[in-house]
Amino acid sequence: MLDKNKAADIFNKIKKHSTADEVEALIYGGHSALTRFANNTIHQNVAEDNVVVSVRTVFGGRTARATTNKFDEDSLQRVVARQCRVSARLLVARSSTRCAIFSCTP
Q1: Which of 16, 58, 61, 96 would be a feasible disulfide site paired with 22, CB 3.0-4.6 Å?
Q2: Nearest 5 degrees, angle CA 21-CA 23-CA 25?
Q3: What percent of the chain has pLDDT over 70?
Q4: What is the DSSP string of 35-94?
Q5: 10-29 pLDDT, tens per residue?
């Protein structure tokens, strides 16, 4: 599991890659396990620990969210870029009289 310092480091990396008006990161995880029985014996035993970061940004009042469970620099940069592209599409699609121009790269 992540401690407070690692979670803060992940959020700082996300902020570094984003040019959004607002940035929110939800970091959550848990442990799950499953045991299957056949003929009164354990047939399969599976356990998983997973931590996920969900990034929400706001550009011009439009929000988008993208999620990943990889925390390396490239993966965090990709998740920020992905939700930035979605926000850009929403902003242009909903803008009937003007085309909003903004940069998704820092």
Answers
A1: 58
A2: 175
A3: 82
A4: EEEETTEEEEEEEEEEEEEEEEEEETTEEEEEEES--SHHHHHHHHHHHHHHHHHHHHHH
A5: 999 999 988 888 889 999 99
Whole-angstrom Cα distance, residue 82 to residue 94? 19
Q: In the sheet where 41-59 sits, what is the strand order?
A: 22-38, 41-59, 62-68
The domain containing residue 34 runs over which residues? 4-94
Residue type, 69: N
Domain of 38, CATH number, reads 3.30.2290.10
The answer to whether residues 16 and 9 touch, using CB atoms and an 8 Å cutoff, is no
Q: Is 17 helix (H, G, I), strand (E, B) or coil?
A: helix
Low-confidence ranges of the chain (pLDDT < 50): 96-106
C-beta of residue 3 within 8 angstroms of C-beta of residue 89: no
